[in-house]
Specification:
The complex is a heterodimer. By secondary structure, chain A is an alpha/beta fold. Chain A contains 4 helices and 10 strands, in the order αβββββαβαββββα. By secondary structure, chain B is α/β, with parallel strands linked by helices. Classes of the chains: A alpha/beta, B alpha/beta.
């Protein structure tokens, strides 16, 4: 074996070992090399109830999105379960960032409602409430808002607590909430929290950005994550 | 000259063996404890035991392994699509939410009661958390669950996914 062949054999061995190590590490869930510049990393989040959810952090320009792979399972006729839908849904905030938001349990009431109204004083939209807050919830609950998500089919409508001149939006407030027609009302306040007020769910937030945070916490809760 | 080349080859094979075996060791060893119970693999984590439920395509984390539950869950049956729940103390209240979550997998809606009532049409679960072993007593239309509710919820989850 001449010197050139020896160098070639060693080079092949070293490359082979790198490839083996890469796939080996990937197999155990480690990211050694990241070939996709947009993907910042994957992580798991153990939900409040023990189920583990898969997230991917993705860079969109300057911003980070938390892309959840959500599998919707239903009992099957043989007594087991089937995953009936899978969706990849991006969120502005990951669940860990929202753990400090206190919330009362309300997910069953939304999942079994005939319809859901998400309402706010529309005059405060753009100042105290972000225009993104309501769609953050609506696009998950109702596939008509965003057909790419298509997880739940709960008819969901946006409304206002105040009459809007030249805007045919429904005027709905907490007072109209009941088991069949659940109302979620966005309110401006001193805390970020979600709580029951009689039959209505109130999402209180301190400012425009926090209204998206609280809305994200609400939808994570409905999905069973927090 | 030939002997020198042989030595190089042996040395190369030895290095390859070391690197491949350490990679395999890293892949399968991981240093984390695993247990196989009822044909299902459980991996120990910082906060409990993790297993994969193929039927829902997700991992799940438990505080207790199935063989640590110490309760015959064949005797625990929920009959209807609705279950009432009443918590006798503040410690028990937190478990209501976990119960609401897991029972949805069986299509059972859990409703909170403000006071104990065994005369309702649907079954009522009376939760009383302590750090003792679980004891279940059935009276009228009520199931009294006394003891470690964390174990009880883990047990129900295992039962729903047919682990126990």
């Amino acid at each position: 074996m001449n010197k050139n062949n020896t160098i070639l054999v060693y080079a092949v061995i070293i490359v082979g070992l790198f490839v083996l190590s890469y796939f080996g590490s990937s197999y155990v869930g480690l990211t050694v090399f990241n070939f996709d510049e947009d993907v910042a990393g994957e992580y798991n989040y153990t939900g409040l109830f023990g189920k583990i959810y898969d997230f991917e952090e993705v860079k969109v320009g300057e911003n980070t999105r938390h892309v959840l792979t959500y599998k919707l399972a239903r009992p099957s006729s043989d007594g087991g379960f089937n995953v009936i839908k899978t969706a990849k849904v991006p969120f502005r905030y990951g669940p860990e960032e929202l753990e400090e938001i206190s919330l009362d349990y309300f997910r069953n009431h939304i999942l079994f409602a005939e319809s859901v109204y998400i309402t706010r004083d529309k005059n405060l939209e753009g100042t105290e409430f972000s225009p993104v807050a309501i769609p953050t919830i609506g696009r998950i609950l109702d596939s008509e808002w965003d057909s790419s998500v298509n997880l739940f089919d709960i008819p969901t409508l946006a409304a206002s607590t105040t009459v809007q001149v030249d805007d045919p939006v429904s005027v709905i407030s907490c007072a109209q909430s009941n088991e069949e027609r659940m109302v979620i009302e966005l309110r401006h306040g001193n805390e970020n929290k979600i709580y029951w007020e009689e039959d209505c769910i109130v999402m209180e937030s301190k400012n425009l950005d926090d209204s998206i945070k609280v809305a994200t916490a609400a939808i994570y809760h409905i999905m069973g994550i927090i | 000259m030939a002997k020198k080349n042989h030595n190089k080859v042996y040395f190369g094979i030895f290095i390859i063996f070391l690197m491949v075996s350490s990679t395999i060791g890293f892949m399968y060893g991981e240093g984390s404890e695993t247990k196989k119970i009822n044909g299902r693999k459980f991996v120990k984590t910082n906060s409990g035991w993790q297993t994969y439920f193929d039927e829902i395509g997700s991992y799940w984390e438990f505080s207790y392994l199935p063989n640590e539950i110490n309760l015959d869950f064949n005797e625990v049956n929920f009959y209807s699509g609705k279950l009432n729940v009443y918590s006798t103390n503040e410690l028990s209240g937190g478990y209501e939410e976990r119960l609401k979550f897991i029972m949805l997998y069986k299509g059972i809606i859990v409703e909170h009661l403000d006071e104990e009532n065994c005369d309702l049409e649907d079954q009522t679960l009376i939760l009383s958390h302590s750090f003792e072993n679980i004891e279940i007593i059935e009276e009228n239309n009520c199931l009294y669950v006394n003891g470690n509710l964390n174990k009880f919820i883990d047990g129900i989850t295992y039962k729903i996914f047919e682990v126990i």
